[in-house]
Amino acid sequence: MTRRPSLVVAGALAAGPTTLVRAQSAAIPPAPAGDIAWMLTSTALVLLMVVGLAFFYGGLVRRKNVLNTMMMSFVALGVVGLTFTAVGYSLAFAPGSTWLGGLDYVFLNGLNTSTAAGLPSLLAFCFQATFAMISAALISGAVVERMRFGAYMLVIALWSIVVYAPLAKWVWGGGFLQQLGALDFAGGTVVHINAGVAAAVLALVLGRRRDYGRKAMLPHQVPYTLLGAGLLWFGWFGFNAGSAQAANGLAVLAFANTLLAPAATLVVWALLDLARDGRVTAVGLATGLVVGLVAVTPAAGYVSPGGALAIGALAAVPSYLLMLWRARSRLDDSLDVFAAHGVGGISGALLTGLFASRAWGAPVQGGLEQLGVQALAVLCALTFSAVGTLGVALLVGRLVPLRADAAAEAQGLDVGMHGEEAYTDGEGALLLPATRLEPRAPAVGVPAGSEA
Amino acid sequence: MKLITAVVRKERLNDVLSALFEASIYGVTVTPVRGHGGEREPVQTYRGLTVKMELVEKVRLDIGVTEAFVDPAVDAIVRGARTGEVGDGKIFVIPVDRVVRIRTGETDAAAVTPLEPA
Predict the structure, then answer these.
(1) Which of A132, A164, A219, B25 could form a disulfide with A60 if both were Cys (CB 3.0 to 4.6 A apart)?
(2) pTM (predicted TM-score)
(3) A253 and A355 in contact (C-beta within 8 Å)?
């Protein structure tokens, strides 16, 4: 089992009665400085993934929507940062039932910086908070170029509490999937399958972009996408190797596997491109890289480096095929979040069940039996995420309109939602004196012939 | 011989081109332009700086046609470009003295008649 729970237990104890802490501190030694340093670093690395994601997604949309798309990632840092502080962390990791945590840690109540028994509970919170942020940001790829920004903020705020927190509890917080024996080292289920399914559901509720299937909507800045993919890989070392919860051999294994699996995916993806079209595409490579990272996430600390290569190579195929199909389908999961994260996550979870190796520290040896357990966990996550997200989306849809109006969608959401443009040279922009900042009536009655 | 110059919304360009192609009009030059057509100026804010965007990005199409194609071309552009909101653009039909196809030296009607598909 992942060492994540031990960290949570340490946090719970530190928050508990003093006598209990004293009684248990003999069992849990003080955290070594190296562990704390690595976990602080990992937390910052996972945060950087959100920035990477902003660039990855930002490059893939049309230039009139790039700010809106990147802001959907950035705003998740703020919105989910607050919801996770308020109740999300508590629902996921405070003592409670096997279904949902309690309210002990609401607003970080009881968390502290003590290193006396394991890692400081406040550090555990920070690490977990970055996971919640990136999960919410991942969803945005399915709804870009058409969703109202305020509605999006509301959706991810609720989603992080209603969907993400319970699932984190089930898999990491001692919940029933963990007790079932499902292996998920760094969050393939909670983060990637969950976000991938939520993305597909939200895309369905929202409907297609008005230009979908009528116009070719091409990526406006592919170099951004490559930059973002690279930053994601860099940050993913914190995501996976940080999930060892210590600076030790397990972290080294997770690190090595995070290096190797995407390498294999990248090559297989390139070969698939070659076989199909005779040319290897840049957007394809960037996507393949992410799929490899997603697939190795549940496996990182449980499989041999060779196993990681195999997982990376195998996981390329289903995601690749699904993306080919999806682009011709009526499902406007605009940036293929489901194909990359949902299906990549499912491939990774199942392959973890096959490749888990006792010799490399997995609690069980991989095989058909473990494959069954993994499949069951996938099914639970899939169903819960789909139903939960649907509920959140329908609820928010009743409170506020989810979609931008046709004019804003045509003009682009950068101007339509934010009143800014990404690439402007300022020509034709007149400074408004402060006295004219009041909302004015639209200009009407322009004399005929004065316009060109 | 006429030169049809149209200024249309960027986001309608694809629709305009489709409509032109449907009307068998294939020769067109497209230029990104900026202009002001009486629409309400969007206000943008960058930190403390508030500006009014007087110029809106549009695309301009230039099409040389024979008399018989003037009406079909104008109809196609209107069909493709109209949203009904202020800012849909303009079409100008301008007389042309002479057209030369550079490759062959053909002039006027012959110069704007597309080649028969080989």
Answers:
(1) A219
(2) 0.86
(3) no
